[in-house]
Automatic annotation (TrEMBL):
Signal peptide: none annotated. Its cofactor is Zn(2+). InterPro entries: ADH-like_C (IPR013149), ADH-like_N (IPR013154), ADH_Zn_CS (IPR002328), ER (IPR020843), GroES-like_sf (IPR011032), NAD(P)-bd_dom_sf (IPR036291), Zn_alcohol_dh (IPR050129). The keyword Metal-binding applies. It comes from the Bacteria. Keywords: Metal-binding, Oxidoreductase, Zinc. Coiled coil: none annotated. The keyword Oxidoreductase applies. Belongs to the zinc-containing alcohol dehydrogenase family. Residues 7-341 form the Enoyl reductase (ER) domain. This is Zinc-binding dehydrogenase.
Amino acid sequence: MKAAVISAPYRFNIEDREAPSPASGEVLIRVRAVGICGSDVHGMEADGGSRRPPGLIMGHEAAGEIVAVGAGVDGWKAGDRVALNPQLYCGHCHACRRGWPNLCENGVTLGSARKQLTHGAMREYIAVPTRQIYKLPDNLSFDEGATLDFVGNAFHVMNRSNSQLGDCFLVIGTGAIGLVAVQLARLRGAGKIIAVDTSPAKLELARKFGADRVVNPLTEDVLAAVKEETDGYGADVVLEMVGLPSTYETAVRAAKMQGTVMALGFAANEVTLPIQPLLFNEVTIVGCTGFSFEGPVVLDMIADGRIDVKPLITHEYPLEDIERGFEALLDKKSDAIKVIIHP
């Protein structure tokens, strides 16, 4: 099989590798679509480079079709179309027993080396346990199925926010996850949605998805805009989707008294938070990672049109052109949001 193997930051060798065989309880999947995630980009850079080292086959946002099943597999067969949950979990540790598979103490992520080298889906075939797959609705393409992970992240953030009808949401960062969050905030009954990004194209899409106010921090003061839209009080729920020290500072300062900052963005290993507004406004910060058992609901909501992912898929390349996919994401003029690779 063909596989894209990292040789250096943003550089890949297309190698011939032996296709895996499904072990007991596993299925072998012919990968048809795999997305390049923002974490893949950050994982090649200084703060996260250990997560995407040379020798790794990356890729965790994937969909494909089953071509073989291992011993003991029931309910799945060759030809079934599936989307993958890339966070491999054990099912028996303390977190898994509590229903938190995304926090599995023994868990690893496909296409990452954060805990151990775990090859991902930037290849023609991958074998995974059946607990990691979800059936694709018939009307969803493989490209749409490959959006499960980032849509699931946005879904999980929203579920943990405990927001209420009429809340004001501030979405900092309108990449793929942020743009889904805008849609979910509207579905959740937001009273107002403010979206922040430096890309005019992404802000225009955020407006299309339901943002009432869009703010470009290169030309406008974010905190002033938030105060203007909230009678000076701030946002009830701030969704931090960027992960930089400056954006986390903005998130805390933009939250209202007893407001909530949902922390998902991760582009730097450490950030410094302004302690005065955090303490004196009793702001709550909630950490988020991955998604739990929301997968089937997420796919159903994409299938019935409540979540629209098609405008987010801006670029597609064959596996041999994976470097062009990264170049598109790194080129601010390309307006790339989600790049899909076809192995």
